[in-house]
Amino acid sequence: MMNIVFLGPPGAGKGTQAKVVCEKLGIPQISTGDMLRSAIANQTETGMKAKTFMDAGQLVPDEVVIALVRERLAQPDCKAGYILDGFPRTVEQAQALQSFAAINAAIDLDVADEVLIKRLSGRRVCPLCGAPYHVDRLNGEKNCKVDGTLLIQRDDDKPETVQNRLAVYHEKTAPLIDFYTQAGLLHSIGGNLTLEEISAAILKVLEAKA
Ligand code: AMP
Known about the structure:
Structural class: alpha/beta
Distance between the termini: 8 Å
Bound molecules: adenosine monophosphate
CATH architecture of the domain at 2-27 and 80-111 and 173-209: 3-Layer(aba) Sandwich
Strand content: 5-15%
Shape: globular
Radius of gyration: 16 Å
Largest sheet: 5 strands, parallel
């Protein structure tokens, strides 16, 4: 059983890598960002609470995301392990997580700010299936290759919000690198690699732990 945390700034490729590794290991990917976006789409109470924070590039309050994750991890499909993608994002969240989960590894995807800004501001996503794209590689194509839906830019990928999200990352989330280093669980993977090289590096770390 592997309970894994993916750290790293917004745009580092956590979601993309989590998807690949989850498929390989047959465990669920738990993305708090996706859960919150679907709560907003369904106009739930959690979604209402989260929306203003997300649109501004701020973190949603700890108690809201902690409750969401605690409930999700209690589902039967998490028994064989999971990847937490985008949680924890504060030391308070990491401490809470310790009280209800046994984490085996924290994978940190380390990417420079200039690269992140370029990636996030050019990112387009399919609002239906969540598939990510980058304008530089779309060659003018406007629809999702999987299901033909018109691609959109996430509100929080707009340039002014991207700057905010990076500042929030450095202030609130980067301290988790120390937190998981002290716990003996941190594995940092450099950003200057291809998608395939990063997946291979992550799987190697996890195989060594299994
Ligand atoms: P993501 O898709 O992971 O980039 O998350 C998008 C947004 O959702 C973030 O900018 C936050 O506003 C919110 N969010 C996602 N995960 C968390 C978390 N663990 N704690 C607080 N806010 C979160």
